[in-house]
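Let's practice the habit of predicting before peeking. Look at the sequence and jot down your guess about where helices and strands might fall. Then scroll down.
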Amino acid sequence: MILDLVAIFRARRDPRLAARLAARFAQDQAIERVTAPLFIAHIVLWTIIGLCALFIIGLAVAALSLHWTLALPALIPFAIGGVAIVLERGLRRGMARVRNIAGQLTDRGMDRLIPNPKTGDDPTSSPPLREG
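Done guessing? Here is the structure:
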């Protein structure tokens, strides 16, 4: 499932990957199975963001009351929280793109995106060149 989450994060910028994920999830009816780990990932990321915000506020209050140099360590939770925000937004955008493409897929579109195990055709490869 972690690899699926990484693929969803990468799908926010790669439409071909988003189409392949959408076809795979639509074929296996796996969108519901992916949303549970995705929900847990969102909760963990928002918990990290909240804790970082509390550390930043605590260090800012300490810096105001004691000495300004106490504000410098606030850069660490600020960076961690920023990375968590970027990850959360990327997961959200990637899953939205995959769901949008999955909603638009028809049976013909799925046949084109998913390799046929009987013939061994790979839809991502180029068609053979015709001679003559």
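How did you do? The mean pLDDT is 78.
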